Backbone:
């Protein structure tokens, strides 16, 4: 499925002709990297961390994530960068989480959620009016995101971006980050790294 905003079909066809070779080449690259890794060590797991915005993936980054998670031989997991709060205007976390979970049709492909630890205690200027103060107002967003992700059928884990944001926060957000971290720790199951 191609996401587009053009109103007339001629502009759409022109864009499709321009994008398709790039999308095809990226798909070929991902498939060849996967095959190369598996030829060396079939137990080695390979995945990709696409942007959380599917329109951006397809139209700007030429990442055909849908093909990767519905076809054999591309990835073992995806780790979409779901760097959005619950109140984000364009990409509310729950909507984007469900979108990625629901597109995976192959049972062997896992969903690892990439979360924005770096936003704790900071204004999210790109989140719209309702979402820009969310990371300033709440100190349990990451914990709620992990809890919500665990309800999804393909969920396999989460990754925080960036480690430094959690364990060496800037002084201006240190209290907010520590509160966010403590709330996240309450949700962790056998999470060795979180309990260090």
Residues:
């Amino acid at each position: 499925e191609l996401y587009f905003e053009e109103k007339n079909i001629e502009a759409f066809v022109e864009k499709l002709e321009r994008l398709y070779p790039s999308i095809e080449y990226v798909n070929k690259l991902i498939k060849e990297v996967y095959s190369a890794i598996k030829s060396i060590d079939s137990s080695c797991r390979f995945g990709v961390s696409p942007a959380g915005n599917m329109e951006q993936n397809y139209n700007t980054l030429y990442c055909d994530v849908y093909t990767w998670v519905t076809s054999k031989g591309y990835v073992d997991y995806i780790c979409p960068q779901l760097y959005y709060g619950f109140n984000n205007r364009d990409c509310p976390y729950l909507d984007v989480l469900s979108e990625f979970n629901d597109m995976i049709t192959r049972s062997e492909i896992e969903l690892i959620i990439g979360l924005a630890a770096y936003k704790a205690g900071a204004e999210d200027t790109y989140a719209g009016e309702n979402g820009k103060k969310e990371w300033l107002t709440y100190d349990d967003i990451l914990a709620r995101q992990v809890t919500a992700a665990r309800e999804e059928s393909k969920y396999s884990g989460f990754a925080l971006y960036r480690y430094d944001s959690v364990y060496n926060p800037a002084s201006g957000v240190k209290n907010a980050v520590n509160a966010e971290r403590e709330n996240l720790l309450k949700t962790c199951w056998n999470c060795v790294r979180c309990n260090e």
